[in-house]
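Reviewers asked in the last cycle whether our approach scales beyond single polypeptides. To address this, we selected a multi-component target totalling 678 residues and predicted its structure end to end. The input consisted of the following lines:
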Amino acid sequence: MVSIDEVARFAGVSTATVSRALSGRGHVSDSTRARVESAARSLGYVVSSSASSLASGRTRNIGVLLPYLDSWFFSTVLSGIASALMRRGYDITLYNLSADRVQRASVFETFLRRQRVDGVIAISIELGADETGRLRELDLPIVAIGGPNPRLFTLSVDQLAVAQLATEHLIGLGHRAIAHIGASPEFDIDFHIPTHRRQGFEQALADAGVPTRPDLYEPADFTMDGGFRAAMRLLGRAAERPTAIFAASDEMAIGALLASRELGHRVPEDISVVGIDGHELGEFFRLTTVDQFPLGQGERAADAILDALEAPRSGALREEPGQLPYELIVRETTARLEP
Amino acid sequence: MVSIDEVARFAGVSTATVSRALSGRGHVSDSTRARVESAARSLGYVVSSSASSLASGRTRNIGVLLPYLDSWFFSTVLSGIASALMRRGYDITLYNLSADRVQRASVFETFLRRQRVDGVIAISIELGADETGRLRELDLPIVAIGGPNPRLFTLSVDQLAVAQLATEHLIGLGHRAIAHIGASPEFDIDFHIPTHRRQGFEQALADAGVPTRPDLYEPADFTMDGGFRAAMRLLGRAAERPTAIFAASDEMAIGALLASRELGHRVPEDISVVGIDGHELGEFFRLTTVDQFPLGQGERAADAILDALEAPRSGALREEPGQLPYELIVRETTARLEP
DNA sequence: TTGAAAGCGCTAACAT
DNA sequence: ATGTTAGCGCTTTCAA
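The resulting structure, written as structure tokens, was:
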């Protein structure tokens, strides 16, 4: 590996000047900079990250904390983060929180404390108080996405408003008998997303003067299979059939869609289905949904971290944690209720 | 951040001893080790990765090169890698190769050359000759998964055998009019996976003395939508309908399944469908498939890299690049052809 | 604008 | 088994 000394010798300057020219910190004359850059290029020199980090305290590396890698939402957010960081020359190191207590603890006790990262992005994880504390002790900028954590700078989508929007769409189409697949009505420990989406659903109904129908709730686990089974139960019951289904996630909505078809109901003629998320499969299934742009969430988080890092008084996350955008995407699984 | 000196002082030993005790390199008496460990623990000391890397040349970090993050296969393999590496105390940094020429080049010219990693795992990427060269110049252990690259130590599934197995399953059930969704028959530039899977398909037919039927090939792009449309074209044609569909990926198989149903054909009574991959949705759709265990692929790759790193003569990938396992999973989308 | 030199926090010879 | 010490390859004062 070619080192900074060789570049310095080749360009006829000191190593300090090479460092300044290549990093852009400190003043260097244009001609010197050009000479150094060309020397570096022709020697194939790349700054050693460990030497640079040790000397400067900056790593050009961001840690990303997430609970699952093999799940559409997380990997999409991650993809957004990766592209934004790479554009700005940052590396990204992954901390996949496993279910295993000990391993999970080791992320906070060891991995994150190796001084390998300049900041961390935490994607939708429910952090314990101690874990949040550990994160803050790192004394690094931390940006959370969508977590319910008041002690962290958090970028989040207003889940209540999102669910409300989806429900209003159904109500606007004339539906009144609307089923809810997701959280059960009693279920009220703050398991965040399910609960907020249920509250948004109920808010929309209340605003429209539509009474809630306990018989039209079906709890499900946010998977396609869960949505399928919930819809089977729901539509299999003798009671009055709902004319629309609000599913608290796209995967459940797709499951519900498939279940409806399997039972011989046409979507959207016999029954409308709306989801939430903007899942990649939504397009294929022509699913009406509220998109929350996960790719964009990742990019926003990356930008927020980098802004904090490169701000004049570094380390400070400026401004208030923004609300993330969302948008109703009307496709072909919802239709006006025909009398 | 507490440093090694404080631990040394606290434990009443030199920094060298602390280093030895904590890293396990070099001999330290049990009692000293215990004292050092407890000092480190009570002070909350964690080795600084940059200082350690600079001094030792080891980073405890593996780079992972992949083309997509938001795709089931890649994120599943990545998940396997992450868990295996984390178990052994390694970090993982992500290099997501974008389509952008310049950015892609920068991964090889800059990112990977920062000496941030001890080794790299490349997941199913088609690398140019120059890129392969750059990788080898790194002089680090490199493990590829499923790429067609003779110059790299590669862990791969025998795609031909996999396709053959799936096809034999269909033939064994009595099917003869078997459609192929995936590569087109002429399409023979080595776009690796599609081509090999087509060849395995044809091999199985040939072995069973079943002539290939050019009219039963439908090219598709390995997405659910592509599989859906291919099946629609296939089944919509007036000619004799196939009794089974071989889809070269599970996503296409699911698309084909949905298309069949949409056209009023029952699966598997009217038509059998088999896929390849072991996709997470296969379970839900009761899809018969050949699983190639992507999670396991990631774990194997991680183990191979770590073995190379920790081998006596470090850096050497021992043994021949193993073949990865696969397995026919019979579910409910295939059935015996009834006369 | 540039250079000299003192570290950054560890590890690994080399001694003992 | 342990300590002393010389770097590892940069960045950043400080001085010129």
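Residues 13-17, 20, 26-29, 32, 51, 53-57 of chain B lie near DNA strand D (CB under 10 Å from a C1'). We regard this as preliminary and will revisit it once experimental data from Aim 1 are available.
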